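Photosynthetic reaction center cytochrome c subunit: structure tokens wanted.
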Amino acid sequence: MRYKAIIILSVLLATVVMLSGFMPQEGKKASNLKVLPKDISHEELDKIMDGYKAALGVKCNFCHAASKENPKRLDFASDEKPEKEITRSMMKMTSRINKKYFHIKNANEPNAILAVNCITCHRGQPHPADK
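Answer:
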């Protein structure tokens, strides 16, 4: 009888452990956000960053510095690279344009449909043409 209880308890414990892997986990929270909403989800932030990469034809390391502890990884919170502050300025600029001329109220919201965005000028290039 005692062995049967131990087996049942072990099976229940194993089931709980296995099912906990399918439960929603605490999302990764970005730090040092100065323009985007501080409560943005990891998925929304990735979607926005993927849009920037496509619009400028670059990879993450164009704006994000390598980690000091592990140079093979990026330090996303670091402000070491000037391109990151330039990006913030461009985000603010496009937000002002979208609000003023196209009456888009929440231009920095992740799901906002914008009239003017990065690709408008960059067209897949890291630096927009002077035309």
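The chain has a mean pLDDT of 86. The first helix runs from residue 2 to 20.

Cheers.
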